Amino acid sequence: MFLNPGPKEAAPRLSRFPVAGRERLRTARHRFRAWRGSRPFWAGLFTLTAGGPILYFPYVRLSLSGIPLALSTTAGAGALITGVLLIALGISLWVRPQTRVFAGIAALLLSLVSFPLANFGGLFLGLFAGLIGGSLACAWAEPARAGAPDIDV
Question: Which of 4, 7, 12, 50 has the maximum number of C-beta atoms within 10 A of its C-beta?
Answer without folding.
Answer: 50
